[in-house]
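ok, trying the design again with the full structure, not the truncated one.
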């Protein structure tokens, strides 16, 4: 499995507090069967993340994981706020794309990322037209979109909004812990049956509290309404293509 949404880099945003916290998060991932984690610091006006430093910070953390014998790869990325997407240059967008750091260097590090997919954080409040407009503008700039934690942005027309995003080519990534705890016959699992739960991410911020770096329980719960082939697509096939910067169609 690949965790496409994790705040594992130390002391860069509201995620891991320090290196020890990052190492503990990586150990959580390893125990859960996660082979690779995209480091996705907030690219947002209230966090002073220097985009040009992300790759070096990822490389530094990877060196520490290797030294500790932790068998998890860390890949570059970012969680880009809807409200800031239009402010970034094409170079900056590629630098915060999932698994991508400009192409050749990513391939040398084994990531193979071409920087084709952006993890996009919706603006606060219910999903709105502005999110679709940003997705469409990113598409015109040659980038595809993964929508982060839609469960935080529900509104009266939530299902229709998700369908419109899917029609615009976006993939929908839900928080794994939220899915694991969803009612078996409830609204969210109904969305899963309808193909509107494409991906899961941990959205973990620390080993000390909150959500762990874990995906397995969420996928186990999804398996009650989706086929084994569909679970394999969500857990492995699609994430692997995303970090390689390849096109991905929606959940079959």
């Amino acid at each position: 499995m690949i965790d496409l949404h994790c705040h594992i880099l130390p002391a860069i945003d509201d995620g891991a507090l320090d290196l020890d916290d990052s190492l503990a998060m990586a150990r959580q991932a390893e125990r859960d069967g996660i082979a690779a984690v995209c480091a996705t610091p907030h690219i947002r006006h209230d966090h002073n993340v220097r985009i040009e430093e992300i790759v070096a910070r990822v490389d530094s953390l990877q060196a520490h994981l290797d030294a500790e014998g932790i068998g998890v790869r860390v890949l570059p990325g970012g969680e880009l706020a809807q409200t800031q997407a239009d402010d970034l240059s094409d170079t900056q967008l590629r630098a915060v794309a999932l698994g991508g750091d400009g192409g050749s260097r990513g391939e040398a590090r084994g990531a193979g990322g071409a920087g084709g997919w952006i993890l996009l954080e919706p603006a606060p409040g219910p999903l709105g037209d502005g999110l679709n407009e940003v997705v469409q503008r990113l598409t015109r700039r040659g980038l595809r979109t993964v929508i982060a934690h839609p469960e935080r942005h529900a509104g009266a027309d939530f299902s229709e909004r998700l369908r419109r995003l899917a029609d615009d080519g976006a993939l929908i990534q839900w928080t794994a812990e939220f899915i694991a705890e969803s009612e078996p016959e409830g609204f969210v699992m109904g969305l899963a049956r309808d193909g509107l739960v494409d991906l899961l991410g941990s959205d973990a911020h620390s080993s000390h509290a909150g959500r762990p770096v874990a995906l397995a329980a969420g996928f186990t719960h999804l398996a009650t309404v989706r086929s084994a082939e569909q679970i394999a697509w969500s857990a492995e096939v699609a994430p692997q293509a995303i970090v390689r910067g390849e096109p991905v169609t929606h959940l079959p």
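Keeping the full-length input from now on. Strands lie at 2-6, 36-39, 42-43, 73-75, 79-81, 117-121, 144-147, 171-175, 199-201.
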